[in-house]
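User: Modeling request: complex.
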Amino acid sequence: MILTVEKTIQWMREIHKRMEANKEQLTALDQAIGDGDHGINMARGFGEVVAKIDGTEYESVADVLKSAAMTLTAKIGGASGPLYGTAFLKMATALQGQEVDQQNLKSAIDQALEGIKMRGNAELGEKTLYDVWYQVADFLGTEKVEDWQEMLEVCQATIEDTRELKATKGRASYLNERSRGHVDPGSMSSYYIFEALATVIEMED
Amino acid sequence: MKKVLNHTDAVVEEMLDGFVKAHSDSLKRLPDTSVVIRNDAPVTGKVGIVSGGGSGHEPAHAGYVGKGMLDAAVAGEVFTSPTPDQVLEAIKAVDSGEGVLLIIKNYTGDVMNFDMAAELAEAEGITVEKVIVNDDVSVEDSTFTSGRRGIAGTVFVHKVAGAIAETKAPLQEVKAAAENVIKQVRSMGVALSPCTVPASGKPSFTLEEDEMEIGIGIHGEPGIERVPLQSADRIADTLLGKILADHEYDNSEVAVMINGMGATPEMELYIVYRQVANLLKEKGITIYANWVGEYMTALEMAGFSITLLKLDHQIKSALSATTDAQAFK
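Assistant: Request completed. Predicted assembly structure:
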C-alpha cells in the first residue's frame, strides 16, 4: 500500500508545512499575475485541514481526503477553494472502500483531474494548476513507479514549460501578454501538494 | 504597512461586527457567518437577492443591503470570494419561497463558489437563478479567456434587480431585468497607486511616481497596460473612449458613475466627472443621473473607474425607486 490512513494524514500535515514555508513565494507569484493572496489562502486552508484532522478519527484514506475536501471548500474561498476542494473530493469518491496502490491512486488523480476540468472549465496548456495534475496523472499511468522524485521532476518541467505561456483562464488571463514569464501560482501550490505526497509515500512504514 | 488594525486575520470579522452595530436599525448579521442581511428578511412574496465577494471593496457589498436593493451580502476574506457554505446560508435566510437571484461578478473564484452554493441550495429545494456581471471593457471579450470582469457596474445591477424584486415581480422577471442592465452597462478603471492586503502586508504591485496602470480590476491587481501618468482629462478621454467604442450610446440617456478606488479624493473624482459630462454633451448623450464617490473600492488603491449605463424605461424607473441601502441612498 502506498497510502495508509496514517500516511494520508501525514500527507496533509506535509502539505500544510510546505504552504506555510512557501507562503511568501506563492503570494509573490500571485502578486505578479493575480491578486496576491494565494500563499495566505493555501496556508490558512491547509491549517484548517490539519486542525480538523487532529480532532477526528478516520477509518479510511477516503474519509481523510473527504474531510480535507470539505474543509478546503469551506475555508479557502477564491478559485483555489472550489478547485482543490473538488480535486480532493473526487479522489475521496474514487478511493471509497479501497486500499491505495499506484493503480487506484492513478484512477483517483484522474478523477480529480476531471473535477478540476469541470469546475474550472480548464484545458491543458492554459497555464493553470490543471497542467500539473495532468502530468502527474500521466506519469502514474506509466510503469510501476520506484522513484517518486521523478514525478516531481515532471511537475517542475511542466511549471517551467508553462512559464512562458499566456494565461487564458483565471485572474492571470486579464493580464494577457503580461502573464508570460511568470509561474502560475496554482501550478506551484500543486507542486507542493505532490512534493508532500512523494515525501510520505517514500517514508518508511 | 501602516493601517488601523487589531489583528490582520480578524479584519473581516471586525469590520462586519462594526458594520451591523452601526446600522442595527435595518441590518443584522446571520449568526456565525459572514452574511449581512435585512432585518426583515425573508420578505414574504418577494424574490431574494444575494450578492457578495471578497472584502476590501467597501461599501460593497454589505453597503447595498437594504429595502430596494440586496436582501443579503456575503463577505469573503480580503479580495477572496466567499465560500459556498456561506453563500448557501445567505440563500436560505432570504428565500421566502419565491426563489433567489445571485448577482455574481465575473471572477473565476466568485463564479465557482456561487455555482457550488446554487447547486447546494437547489439540492435543498430552493429555486436559484444567477446573473454574471461583466462590465469591464479593458479585458478582451473572447471565448478563449475567462471573459470580462465584473466591476463597479455591478452596483447598478444590484439597484435595478433590487427595485424590480421589491415590486414582488417573479424570479424570471427580476433575472431578466438584471440581465438587461448587464447588457447595457460598461466600465473601465485606472490605478495611480497599489493597495496593501492586510494579511500580506506588502503593496500589490509597484508603480513609479510618473506611471499609472490602465484597465485595472478591483482586487489591487495590475491593469492591462502601464503607461506614463496623464492629466485627469486625458485619462477620462481614454477610459470613456474605450467605453463608447464598445457599445452603442448615440442619442441615448445614460447613468454615470465615477467610482473612487479607495484613496482618491472627491476633488479628483469631480474633476473627472466634469470632463466626462463635457465629452458626453459633445456627443449628444444625455446624463439622466450620476453617482460620484466610492462604490466599489480596492482597499486604499488610488484611482477610479468610469461606468456608463444606457437607460431604457425600466432601468430609469428602477434607478429612481427608493432604497434604504446604506451606500446608495
